[in-house]
Write a structure and sequence with these properties.
With 192 residues, this protein is an alpha+beta fold. The chain is built from six helices and six strands, in the order βαβαααβββαβα. The chain has a six-stranded mixed β-sheet. Helix 3 packs antiparallel against helix 4. Belongs to the UPF0696 family. InterPro entries: Bles03, TIF_eIF4e-like.
């Protein structure tokens, strides 16, 4: 999304429009409107308020798209170098050899530069699905950088996140490693 294109004024002159369902905000022009890139230069309080006012998770239906997404500038550089087809091919080889373990998946993740991960507790939040809780994801550049992962968890705790939160590697997402998988791998890591 281009900066500030679909954002409303903060000063109260404009109000969010809603669809016939008064709980829902008006639909985006495209699913990309649910995302925004934040940098040191454009991360102002006004812009943050505009974004969260336009896309409140509890009033943004899943039909508009699965995620409301804000990424920090620079994250895309690491993502651009990811070799997801290579990761998937290496995973198929592990499957064929019967060698799917946390360590072997970590190894192929590093080899294919798919080392981003997220605290599930950039930020993305799930849109509203009736009867379901929201998921909020906060990304790190390299899940193998344990000090970065721990520092982010500490920051979340200092903001008041007291409940148990899981950390999921993007490699697991790309490889469809979810709960109750046939390899008995926990889909999230670094639990306290």
């Amino acid at each position: 999304m281009d900066e500030d294109v679909a954002m409303m004024a903060v000063d109260g002159q404009e109000t969010p429009t809603s669809t016939s369902n008064s709980r829902s905000v008006a639909p985006p022009a495209s699913p990309q409107d649910l995302s925004s890139v934040w940098t040191a230069e454009n991360s102002t309080q006004q812009r943050i308020i505009q974004f969260i006012t336009r896309w409140p998770p509890s009033r943004t239906p899943f039909a508009y798209g699965p995620w409301i997404y804000a990424s920090r500038g620079g994250m895309s550089e690491g993502i651009a170098g990811q070799n997801i087809p290579g990761l998937k091919a290496a995973f198929q080889a592990l499957l064929g050899a019967g060698r799917v373990t946390v360590d072997t998946v970590d190894q192929i993740s590093k080899t294919n530069n798919v080392v981003t991960g997220k605290w599930m507790g950039v930020v993305k939040v799930s849109t509203c699905k009736e009867g379901e809780k929201h998921v909020i994801c906060i990304y790190v550049n390299d899940y193998t950088n344990k000090p970065e992962v721990d520092a982010l968890r500490k920051g979340l705790r200092s903001l008041g996140v007291k409940w148990r939160i899981g950390f999921k590697t993007d490699a697991y997402t790309h490889l469809n490693i979810y709960k109750d998988n046939p390899w008995n791998l926990r889909p999230s890591r670094f639990h306290e």
